[in-house]
Amino acid sequence: MLRQDSLSFRGNKPSQAMTLGEARPGFSGTILAVDAAGVEGSLPADELERRLLEMGLMEGATVEVRHQGLIKRDPIAVRINGQASFALRRREAAAIFVISNI
Fold this sequence. Notes:
Elements: E1 18-19, E2 28-34, H1 45-54, E3 62-68, E4 76-80, E5 84-88, H2 90-93, E6 96-100
């Protein structure tokens, strides 16, 4: 679990940071942290964080949002470090804090 100063990242979010779930197609950025505390979903927060980290969604990785679904913009297709591509639900992507590379 990635935390800033052992506190939830949600309370200490840098002003230009956003969640990957808020990003639109064409977004390119760097992952600042993974923090699933408070993210609603079918998995407990620690399990969601573990799965995201196993997929390569970890601090310092570059991420691009390639596509989005037609219904409610869900899921999103992301590319990590220019290599791996996969689909991710926006509610799960809300656990990933990013900052734009532009």
